[in-house]
Amino acid sequence: MARVNIDGRDYDLPDGQNLLHACLSERLDLPYFCWHPAMGSVGSCRLCAVLQYRDEADTRGRLQMACMMTVEDGLRIGIGTSDGEASRPAAFAADFRKQVIEWLMENHPHDCPVCEEGGECHLQDMTVMTGHSMRRYAGMKRTWVNQYLGPFVGHEMNRCITCYRCVRYYRDYAGGTDLDAFGSKSHMFFGRAEDGVLESEFAGNLVEVCPTGVFTDKPFSKVYTRKWDLQSAPSICPHCSVGCNTFPAERYGVLKRVHNRYHGEVNGYFLCDRGRYGSHFVNHDRRIRNAGVRAEDGVFEAPGRDAAVTAVAERLQDADVIGIGSPRASMGANFALKELVGADNFCIGMADDEAATMAAMLDAYRGGGFKIPSLTDIETADAVLILGEDISNTAARMALAVRQAARGVAFEMAKDAEIPDWQDAGVRGHAQHAKSPLYIASVASTRIDDLAAATRHGDALDLARAGFGIAHAIDSDFPPGTLDAFVASAAEALAAADRPLVIAGSEAREPALVQAATNIALALGTRGEDAMLALTASESNSYGAALLGGSLGLSDAVQRIADGAVAVIVENDLYRRLPGDGVDLGRAIVMDYLETPTAESSAVVLPASTYAEQTGTFVNYETRAQRFYQVFEPTDEIAPSWRWISAIGNAMGRDDLGWTDMDSLTKACAAAGVELSGLADVAPGAGFRVDAESKIPRQPHRYSGRTAMRANVSVHEPKTTVDHETPFSYSMEGLNTGDQPGAVLPYVWSPGWNSNQSVFKFQQEVAGALAGGDPGARLIVANGDTRKDAHQDVPPPAQTDLSNGTFVAAHVSYVFGGDELSAASAPILERTPPPYVLLNSADAQRLGVSEGNGVAIAELGASYEVRVDDGIAPGVAGVARGLPGTGVLTTTSVNLAADPDFVRRPGGDPNLIAKG
Amino acid sequence: MASARPLTGVVDTVGGLVDLESYESHDGYAAARQALATAPDDIIDLVSEANLRGRGGAGFGTGMKWGFTRGPAKTPGPKYLVCNADEMEPGTFKDRYLLEYNPHLLVEGMIIAAHAIHAEVAYVFLRGEYHQPYRELHKAIDDAYAKGYLGKRIFGTDINLELRIHRSAGRYICGEETALLNALEGKRAQPRQKPPFPPASGAWGRPTIVNNVETLCNVPAIVRNGAEWYQDLGIGDDAGTKIYGVSGRVNKPGLWELPIGTTIREIIEEHAGGMKDGYKLRGLLPGGASTDFLVEQHLDLAMDYGTIQAAGSRMGTGTMILMDDTICPVDMCRNLEHFFAQESCGFCTPCREGLPWVEELLTDIEEGRGKEGDLELLDRNAMFIGGTTNTFCLHAPGAMEPLASALKYFRDDFEEHIRTGQCPYR
Fold it and tell me: Is there a contact between B205 and A429 if contact means CB atoms under 8 Å apart?
């Protein structure tokens, strides 16, 4: 620690840290623009000016930018305030900061009343904070023509204050190439070379990175609401297994937007665009809003909640009942269903191959011998192997973390050259293109191939064999697999690393791939390194469902249904997992949010709450259980699935399903298994109060219109719902001090800091843990102590006759629309491709097709669009899965033939026209 | 007997362009041969001892700069020598003269400098508009390659040197050495934060020495004649000669290689032939557009780094611009600030947003639209833009030097413009 005097007061600050960073960690109000906690300093905006004094006698000081200074012992600085009272000489620095704002406001339009950033604008905050209030510049304002940047991000360049954060984030941090700084002098333009969709799947973060309203959330703009009128609660992204923390926000019963919720170990400051824009399914016009019971004429009737529950109870009473849960349903919903039907009759809702892969993943985690890394841990890895999982599409936020890991060597080089790690341009300029080793073994090309030291392509079994080969090359006690240049080089890099990381997952539905990855991590572990293994799953609660477990496989469940069992299906569209003709759901009871094919086939549908309308828990890829809280109350008969189940249980006369609230359900679930016991510690229960007495408001203190917002319906103000389930209130009354546990932070907002930049007031230190601790509880904590035996079953290569249009089938995923929920979100739909097959150019030529043509897939009875990717191995067809319109492939090979009648169609599901 | 004008003497002797043959017949490349047989560190010590200071304007000790990257690179990879030939300072044309008439002198200087710092690749970053200098330098480099003075195993030694010309796309800021390096790398020409300084992390992150054309051209004579000889060339504290230039209403505008420390009066009155009849000198920018005005009282000062700095300005490039009594100081400032605003790279706020405001204020005042309070706004802008740590690089503080000094020496003119609502010089 270093003793630093700031405005006459001594502080102990971390030696060598950036001074601005350190000042903000002390929660001092030092204005800034271009600095960003995740991106360091470049010194462009000149707003964080302070006076540096030589010694105690120095009363003049020298103006310096705090973002360009290093904390060192004996440093004396003055921040001063705009009224100049804090310390006299420092008023000069305050005056300079005011001048910087005056300069920036020369060209900034006074369109705050109609600007989407209004009320949460960092520029507004800094303007007020520095005291600039009178316009003296009399010249014309510069104007620009804006660009179309796609469905996610709006563009209003006139508001730009040229802080360079956007390009630093988009290019330097996220690796994008199609956004840049153009022009010079006072005519700097930030955008694309020409109009067009921003390519990066992390483009949406521009909305939060931009300190003013240049880059805005386009879908949000269409249904715009001021930040202070939004109701929000801490939540978890429902779109993949990373479990990014989010702030969904609502008004008038509409989910308006999703913002990043800082988590020091998981998502930090950034989300992917699937997470940011995927939640508009909540507003879908095909939401199931009322219980429906199919009448004899085959048409659903809406008998009302109680009658529907009774109808279900009657159907289940003396029947053979099975339950099919879901990897996208909460722990509570899955647990309640399992309790309803019993473990022997409970299926976790994954197809058998996925369930087997998940089992292999849990088996690896349970065995230990390595560390399960958080995203923050991933960023510190000094050698990475990605084995058979296209994380840019299946766990996008993790790919962004891997991108940061690749910079590790740059920081080492900078350290040797005595360039501080926060001096961003210096580090990048010094290290140039140097990257820490990343090896990617994948089916097709990936969007992080630009970082890779080497890539290797093949089908899942081929990649698994390569993985076994790497483990063997590291430690010859492990069984041999393929040995080639990639294998040897990857093994060498991993073995030489201090913090090697292996990433694999369930995308390929291939347990051997997971076992190969596990062998590598174990092989690294035996050498004493701090090896890490991350295994990504497909959905938000795949791990939770798998940990809960169930005896019934999905194909067995289908057989039971065929044999006459009544299935209760919770938040699961089985037609995404099984071939469409394989199952008759005519007797099934379905709880879901959307009118899925499964819901439409069933006997009874019950409207289930989405994640934003209920409180629950998801378990992410690290087995980190995380709580999401109800953001707003659903309308009509929509209720959480577990409540429906509880009501059904009551109607059936069961006394074991009567959970009264979330806390009792969580308690029961935590008691259901040793590995589930951590669920009790995930987040505070309903009884938690801030400062022992206050609930936490979902609405910020400036929330307006409470008495008037429903006046068009009734002039009587409805009584505010009292929330007995959570520590939150549906009101602006209460306290959000930021000191409460991180899991119950409903929004960030601090006096003077109305924008999301205020998050530093809620952290223990800038970019560190939240003040009340980062939320969540790890259910399985693998450690290096337990040593498990190597997997010995190296799979043989795929056996396929590759003549006559037969290809080895490999599943490929796509980030937008590749999961069920984002595919039903209007903005995402615009980025969702039609079903496609990836072929390399030689194979495409052999079939007589080229990019954009169609190929008929015999096994699916459908034609997909051809996309040529020379990253894909010869004889392998990458068949898209999970997109609207894709079928369920159950074979390991496909027979392809050119389809001359194929009509290319735009992406998106023609049957699901989303609004919202 | 060594020439008292090591930079331009041979040009006069030859009577124009010094080609390879003429250059060699006047001891050309003898210094390079001598240097290649000398230990690199000894050359650095010699140049330090000679007290050669950077002729680009900042006057940093050349030997000391080289000394920051003594010996072979500490980490695997190349070291670079870069010649800053992006001569874009208004009123400055000294490097152009050297490049057009004595290009082999630069090539020889770079061979010696590259050897001294263990660089095997060197670049000349050349102002884009310098077409004739480009042709002459290109020819000189080709001839040197043909003779084996550049390329592999130069002069029959084990030493290699590739010398390349990079023609700038044309931005004043590229004269700032780190912006130059960014441009050389193909990036936006914006300066870099220092540290790291280029000797530690320069072009492509490698140790790099950036020297001005005139600086490098001084090196061969130092090697040939020694440090003491070189020091004796200067009149005051500084060593060697300096190419001084004068533009404005003098009888003989031009440039002359003179002992460093020659007085301003001698340069103007003897070498430039004094003011034209009917014109009176009101002020001068001693070393290019980004230096403070000097006035009559300063004429007897020696043009060297220390003396001019003590008078509140900078010797800069040593090529002065004279303002006579028919030129409106407000208009001259407006003209200069237009240039500086135009040439801002757009990276930091005071420069990007402050300079256009200053230009606009000056335009209003010059065109009769000046208001009460405008001078205070100019003062405030000049103070806040002018602080050397207030901006990211020294472009904007440099831009404020002529303005702040004009507001000091010619304030009456500014006030009169505002009071009368017109420019008295029109």
Answer: yes
Say yes or no: A142 contacts chain B, CB-CB below 8 A: no
Nearest to A68 by CA among B173, B56, B348: B348
Q: Which domains does chain A have, with CATH numbers?
A: 2-104 (3.10.20.740), 372-530 (3.40.228), 806-898 (2.40.40.20)
The residue of chain A with its CA nearest to that of B347 is A44
Six-digit token string for A556: 């067995």
Query: Is A100's Cβ below 8 Å from some Cβ in B?
Result: yes
Which residues on A lie below 8 Å from B347 (Cβ)? Answer: 44, 164
Rounded distance between C-alpha atoms, residue A582 and residue A749, angstroms: 52
Q: Which residue of B has its CA nearest to A101?
A: B349
Q: Which of B176, B182, B194, B353 to mutate to test the interface with A (most CBs of A within 10 A)?
A: B353
- Do the beta carbons of residue B405 and residue B293 sit within 8 Å? yes
Output the six-digit token pair for A157.
């360049």
Question: For A800-832, b where at least 16 C-beta lie within 10 A, e where not — what string?
Answer: beeeebbbbbbbbbbbbbbbbbbbbbbbbbbbb
Within 10 angstroms of residue A39's Cβ, the number of other Cβ atoms is 18
B390·A49 Cβ contact <8 A: yes
Under an 8 A CB cutoff, do B353 and A106 touch? yes
Residue with tokens 């003269």: B97
Residues of A in contact with B390 (CB under 8 A): 46, 49, 63, 96
- Per residue in A543-595, pLDDT tens? 999 999 989 999 999 999 999 999 999 999 999 999 877 788 999 999 999 99
Decide if B147 touches A, using CB distance below 8 A. no
Residue ranges of the alpha helices (H) in B8-120? 9-14, 20-25, 30-36, 40-49, 62-67, 94-101, 103-117
Q: Name every chain A residue with its beta carbon within 8 A of the beta carbon of B387.
A: 63
**Inter-residue contact A814 to A829 (CB < 8 Å):** no
Count of CA atoms in the C-beta half-sphere (13 A) of B246 = 30
Check: CATH 3.40.50.960 for B9-233?
A: no
User: Of A437, A440, A449, which Cα lies nearest the Cα of A467?
Assistant: A440
Contact A63 B390 (CB under 8 A): yes
Extents of the domains making up chain B: 9-233, 241-316, 329-420
Question: What CATH number should be reported for the domain whose range is B329-420?
Answer: 1.20.1440.230
A254 neighbors A220 (Cβ within 8 angstroms): no
Element (H, E) at A717: none
End-to-end CA distance of chain A: 51
Taking a C-beta distance cutoff of 8 angstroms, is the pair B218, B113 a contact?
no
Domain B241-316 fold: Ubiquitin-like (UB roll) (3.10.20)
What is the distance between the alpha carbons of residues A297 and A295, in angstroms, rounded to a whole number? 5
The average pLDDT across A497-504 equals 97
The overall average pLDDT reported for chain B is: 96
**Residues A758-786: tens digit of each pLDDT:** 999 999 999 999 999 999 999 998 666 65
Would you say B351 and B391 are in contact if contact means Cβ atoms under 8 Å apart? yes
Q: Which residues from chain A sit within 8 angstroms of residue B389, using beta carbons?
A: 62-65
Read off the pTM.
Answer: 0.96
Rounded alpha-carbon distances, angstroms, from residue A780 to A398, A619, A620, A671, A777: 19, 11, 11, 15, 9
Angle between helices B40-49 and B213-225 (to 10 degrees): 100
A186–chain B Cβ distance below 8 A for any pair: yes
B-chain CB neighbours of A164 within 8 Å are 347
Q: Sort out which chain B residues have CB atoms less than 8 A from A99's CB and list them.
A: 350, 380, 384
Contacts of A758 (CB under 8 A, 6+ apart): A748, A749, A750
